[in-house]
Design a protein that fits this description.
2 domains, ConA-like_dom_sf, hydrolase activity, hydrolyzing O-glycosyl compounds, Beta-glucanase-like, single chain, Jelly Rolls, mainly beta, seven-stranded antiparallel sheet, 1,3-beta-glucanase, Glycosyl_Hydrlase_16, globular
């Protein structure tokens, strides 16, 4: 099996799983000058599936079932559009990604659709499509725990005869990328990729340095091509698990619940694994056209390539398993009562830091010290805290726990905070937890997009 070849800076991949009971899609094509056009796509009998219950030992951390009115775009509180020419993504793709509901839309039946469209007569120009990523960059496995990312997807209903150049993907990039850590050092995990309508799936980890390095970039360390029968005509589940409860740690890829590829941490040096895997991620969907990966398997798009092929997404879910094998590995602070020593103004209240959104934030008054506190509702054994700072961050701060909200115990302390995302492994117990800031890094206050707490 041949691994994918990428071009340039930030490649990606796709993966698949559970077959969903459904009738085959009906495709009607009309031949125009230079390229065929998909003029109607119907998937009769394809019912919307509920987000599955967590696997044994896991809890549901976050999900989206894409229930929205037909023809509407994504919820920009949860997702962001990645727009612009495909050439800017470093993979050689040729489409332009847009936020138009011609390319990214809900179908009204519980599915999100990414659709690639072509105009003109030149098959290598005139393509538009869609790419989105989560606002939150908080999905990861705590030390000793496991995280599972899963999605039910129907790949574009194209074949090798009419789908050359199509490149659907469900994948993740490491949160440190958003704070300036370069690709691929910051990590990329490709959960589903297929190219050229081959009814295949590729799963890959990108890490280390590019080109070459211990992770063989820009190809990465992957499964190679695996068969994915029926993945163009029906919904299948694609999942990855990052397991930090084992020694060595490992990443497992699943198609329809079957583990088809496992990558142990021992494949790369410990520092490479830590930089690429031991932190949160953000999730991405996209439908690219052309590029280095399709080119490695015959190229495209060609005059025979159909316009209008679409990637249909039923749901996405993130599940966590806490250290020790039990459940409770999710963010136990989300939605819990949150208070602070001060707020910059009424729109930047403390609750914004625990609302699960990567776009709202808490901001304090412009003085030291300041704190933000969460009442978890009951006592937890806490093993991990993630702080997603805005540009105004804490240089010196402590993470503190308390049984009564009055007497506090330090479980983490730093005087060298550098902003971005702080993913902290720690050990503490309490009903209450707070960030106690003692020195600001800027003239402004302390400002957090998200204050996440993990424990059992």
């Amino acid at each position: 099996m041949r691994d994918r070849t990428d071009v340039g800076a930030i490649p990606r991949r796709r993966l698949g799983a559970r077959l969903k009971a459904a009738a085959s899609a009906v495709l009607l094509t009309v031949t125009t000058v230079g390229i065929s056009t998909l003029t109607a796509v119907a998937v009769p009998g394809t019912a919307h599936a509920a987000v599955p219950a967590p696997p044994p030992g896991f809890t549901l951390t976050w999900s989206d079932d894409f229930s929205a009115a037909a023809g509407t775009g994504v919820n920009t509180g949860t997702w962001k559009y990645d727009t612009g020419p495909g050439s800017s993504f470093g993979t050689g793709e040729i489409e332009t990604m847009t936020n138009s509901t011609a390319n990214v839309f809900h179908d009204g039946n519980g599915h999100l659709v990414l659709r690639a469209l072509h105009s003109g007569t030149n098959p290598t120009q005139g393509w538009t499509s869609g790419r989105i990523e989560t606002q939150a960059a908080t999905f990861g496995a705590p030390a000793g725990g496991v995280v599972r990312m899963e999605s039910s997807i129907q790949q574009p209903n194209v074949t090798t005869a009419n789908g050359a150049g199509y490149w659907p993907a469900f994948w993740m990039l490491g949160a440190p990328l958003r704070s300036g850590v370069p690709w691929p050092t910051s990590g990329e995990i490709d959960i589903l990729e297929d190219i050229n309508g081959r009814s295949s799936v590729f799963g890959t980890l990108h890490c280390g340095t590019n080109p070459g390095g211990v992770c063989n970039e820009s190809t990465g360390l992957g499964s190679g091509e695996r068969p994915c029968p029926g993945c163009q005509t029906g919904y299948h589940t694609y999942a990855v698990e990052i397991d930090r409860s084992k020694s060595p740690e490992e990443i497992r890829w699943y198609l329809d619940g079957n583990n088809y590829f496992t990558l142990p941490a021992t494949r790369v040096p410990a520092a490479t694994w830590t930089s690429a895997v031991q932190h949160p991620f953000f999730i991405i969907y996209d439908l690219a056209i052309g590029g280095g990966f399709p080119a490695a398997f015959g190229g495209g798009p060609f005059a025979s390539t159909i316009s209008g092929g679409q990637m249909n997404i039923d749901y996405v879910a993130v599940y966590n398993k806490g250290p020790g094998g039990g459940g409770g590995g999710g963010n136990v602070a989300q939605g819990k009562p949150t208070t602070a020593s001060s707020v910059e103004n009424a729109s930047l209240g403390a609750a914004n830091a625990t609302d699960g959104s990567g776009t709202t934030r808490w901001s304090s008054a412009f003085s030291d010290p300041q704190w933000i506190q969460v009442d978890l509702g009951r006592s937890y054994t806490i093993n991990r805290v993630t702080l997603n700072w805005e540009a105004a961050y804490g240089k010196a701060y402590q993470i503190q726990t308390s049984a009564d909200g009055t007497t506090w115990t330090n479980v983490y302390s730093t005087t060298t905070g550098d902003g971005g995302t702080d993913d902290l492994t720690l050990s503490g117990t309490g009903r209450y937890i707070r960030v106690n800031g003692t020195q600001r890094a800027t003239p402004y206050g302390y400002s957090l997009f998200e204050f996440q707490v993990y424990g059992t």
